Amino acid sequence: MQSMKQNATLVIISALLLGMTGCSFEAPSNETTKAATPATATVAQPEKIIMSASSPTAITTEAVSKGDSGIAPPYEEIKRTIDQIVGRDEHGGGPEVGQDGIVDPKIREAFGNYNVLLRNKEVHNWSGWLGDFTQANDINSAPIYNLSLFMREPKPGDGAYDGVLLLNVPRVQLENLGIRIPQQRFGSWAGAWPRVEFDGTIVGTFHNGLVLLDEATIKSWR
Prior knowledge:
This protein is an alpha+beta fold. It is 24% helix and 26% strand. It contains five helices and eight strands.
């Protein structure tokens, strides 16, 4: 069962990497997601994060909230820090990307370093709106899903591309909360968008602000 869960995680991360060229996702160092790490990616050590204060990519370890080092900063802080690193305020649409990811080596390094800081940090009591779902395994009797969440109240036509992706959520977890999910491999809650509170562990991020969480638990919804 664990092997199936790991395979499902690899599939969704690989699909995201193919569909979001240049996101420079830095996968965790464990075996579960090692295969998804781009061959050309380089990750400097966290202590090398501090860069020139005059650079738009300047960032220090202060970007991570104080307190328990195992607890992730709020989503809003993560998104704001990523935007700062990649110069989204300055460039509007984000950094220049190519087939191998972010082109600017300083931005690429700083973004990789921030992923190192975030990796394996625990998320507690985040809330967002369920957007899309994709079945992540082939066991129809016990399906698990990858759930795309908006982290700001959605409007018709919105896509949850810079929110949160919950990986490997069992169908039974949703049903036990009374959240209806259609008997199909993929779909959405468009127009309904249940608001949920959830926990999880950060796997990594993309340069557009998408945060990937594994070991996710949806605690409540309204």
